[in-house]
From TrEMBL:
UniProt-recorded name of the protein: HTH lysR-type domain-containing protein
InterPro entries assigned: LysR-type_TF_proteobact-type (IPR058163), LysR_HTH_N (IPR000847), LysR_subst-bd (IPR005119), WH-like_DNA-bd_sf (IPR036388), WH_DNA-bd_sf (IPR036390)
Domain HTH lysR-type, chain residue ranges per copy: 6-63
Taxonomy, superkingdom: Bacteria
Keywords: DNA-binding, Transcription, Transcription regulation
Gene3D superfamilies (UniProt xref): 3.40.190.290, Winged helix-like DNA-binding domain superfamily/Winged helix DNA-binding domain
Organism: Kiloniella litopenaei
GO molecular function ontology, one term from the record: DNA binding
Family: Belongs to the LysR transcriptional regulatory family.
Amino acid sequence: MRRPSDKFHLMTVFHTVVQTGAFNKAAEKMGMKASSVSKAISQLEQLLESKLLYRTTRNLSLTDIGKYYYDQCDHILGDVVTLEETIGSLQNEPSGTLRITAPTAFGQYFLGPRLSTFLEKYPNINIDLDLTEKLRDITKEGYDLAIRSSKGLPDSSLFALKLIAQKRVLVASPHYIEQSGQPKTPDDLPKHQTLVYSAMAQAQRWSMSNKTTQYHVDITPRLKTNSYYTLRDAARSGLGIANLNDYMVADDIKSGKLVHVLPDYTQSQRDRFAVYQQKRELSPKLDAFLSFLTDALHCQS
């Protein structure tokens, strides 16, 4: 509820009186009673301890102090209008720096190749991307968005949006399949050369299932490394069968550089989330990026 002596309100009333030249016209413009307008001017003069207007039954005129005060009011109220228009444009036009933290592999394989498209679409947005396996405290460290494989919401004030269910797939090059054959079931995998990501829990046990049977297969890798890039390159070159996240190899499978091995068997999925501090509708840059990201993920899947 507005206080009767709210200086900004009194300033606005005074400014409107001077612009319209009459109390009743100012009252009509502001949706007030003429008596309320008169009372507001009196309150303002009392607060300033200065007379601002000469009043007669027919005319209003400004005192010297009133002229000065009106000029300053005009500047101040004009700045307020400009500020409101600027805030409105910021709400409508995405702009500013968007700080994002994401797992290294997801950033390199999925985000990186698509950032140029996003930045071309939104020329007033800048991206500050941190790729790390560390679980950043986005509130303390000032990130707008974190991409995670779990909700990870120790702070109840954070928001989480499920982006997609992340899957792992077995892949090999057409040359390898031609030379070594296509496995018929997971039980055939120990007979093949396998390429393993060493940082994964139980890296040398691959688990998968079809509609009827669950398989847990122990393998002896030909190559074991903590680099997804190295594994994908090794699979492309025909060294063996690699177990990689679907987003890492989707384009290679489409282009024929890699073949999906045992496509009728699925591995357990991990949900991938976007975690952020404020409601997305309050941040146009965040909302724009989340919309872009979800569209890109769903197009790939």
